[in-house]
Specification:
The protein has nine helices and five strands; from the N terminus they run βαβαββαααααααβ. It has 210 residues and is α+β, with helices and mostly antiparallel strands. It folds into two domains: 91 residues, 3-Layer(aba) Sandwich (Glutaredoxin), CATH 3.40.30; 102 residues, Glutathione S-transferase Yfyf (Class Pi), Chain A, domain 2. The longest helix has 21 residues. The structure holds glutathione (GSH). Glutathione binds next to loops.
C-alpha cells in the first residue's frame, strides 16, 4: 500500500475548504496537517512553491492549487457526480477566484485600506452574487446535484455573507440565500469543518476524511 497523500490545510481558508469538500466527497483518505499561516512549518514551505494552503503532496506530485486538488480527488472517485459540469462552471469559478475574490477581500479588510470604498466594493461583490442568483434556477448552479462549481464557489460566498450577515440576508437574492443556507447545514460542509490541533513534525497521522 502506498502512503496516503499529505494535505496541508487551514480550517477557515475557503480554498482549503473547497479542497477538503472534494476529498471528502471522493472518500480518498489523506493525512491532514492543520497549519497556522503565521507559523508555516518548514516541511510545508519546502513543499509549497507559493507558500499557500491547501497544498497536497501525493507521491512525487505536489499540487499547490485548490482546484487541482479538487480534480485530483474527484478523478479517483466521484460518487456524487461533481465533475459532471458544463464548461460554464469553469467560467464561474474563474470569476469567483478573480474579480469576486478581489472585491471580497476589499469588503472584508476595508478597515485596512487607505482607499476603502465600502459601497463600491460591496456593489462589485454583489455583481457576481446577482449572476449566481440568475444561474440558480434549480437547487444548484447546474441542476439538481452539486458540481465542482457549487463547491468551489460556496466557501467564498459564505465568507462574504458573514462579513455582514444582516446585510447579506436582507438583499434580494432569495435563491442565493437558500443555496448558501442549505450548504451551511449540509453534512458535506459540517463534515469538513472539524477542528484539528496544529500539526507538528512527528505527530501521528490524522486521516481525513475520518
Ligand atoms: N491559488 C491558491 C490560493 C490559496 C490561498 O491564497 N490561500 C491563502 C489562505 S486562504 C494562503 O495560504 N495565504 C498565504 C498566507 O496568508 O500567508 C489556491 O487556489 O489554492
Amino acid at each position: 500500500m502506498s502512503k496516503p497523500a499529505i494535505l496541508y490545510s487551514f480550517r477557515r481558508c475557503p480554498y482549503a475548504i473547497r479542497a477538503r469538500l472534494a476529498i471528502s466527497s471522493a472518500g480518498v483518505p489523506v493525512d491532514l496537517r492543520e497549519i497556522k499561516l503565521r507559523e508555516k512549518p518548514a516541511a510545508f514551505l519546502a513543499l509549497s512553491q507559493s507558500g499557500t494552503v491547501p497544498c497536497l503532496s501525493a507521491g512525487a506530485e505536489v499540487l499547490d492549487e485548490s482546484l487541482e486538488i479538487m480534480i485530483w480527488a474527484l478523478d479517483q472517485n466521484d460518487p456524487a457526480g461533481w465533475l459532471q459540469m458544463p464548461k460554464a462552471g469553469h467560467t464561474l469559478i474563474g470569476e469567483c477566484d478573480g474579480p469576486f475574490k478581489k472585491a471580497l477581500d476589499r469588503v472584508k479588510y476595508a478597515s485596512r485600506l487607505s482607499d476603502a470604498n465600502p459601497a463600491q466594493d460591496r456593489a462589485n461583490a454583489s455583481a457576481f452574487l446577482l449572476q449566481l442568483e440568475a444561474q440558480l434556477t434549480a437547487p444548484y448552479l447546474f441542476g439538481n446535484h452539486p458540481t465542482v462549481a457549487d463547491m468551489a464557489i460556496l466557501p467564498f460566498v459564505r465568507q462574504l455573507a458573514f462579513v455582514d450577515k444582516i446585510w447579506f440576508d436582507t438583499q434580494c437574492w432569495p435563491r442565493l440565500q437558500k443555496w448558501l443556507e442549505a450548504f451551511l447545514i449540509s453534512p458535506s460542509f459540517i463534515g469538513v469543518m472539524d477542528k484539528y490541533p496544529q500539526w507538528s513534525p512527528g505527530d501521528p497521522v490524522t486521516t481525513f476524511p475520518e
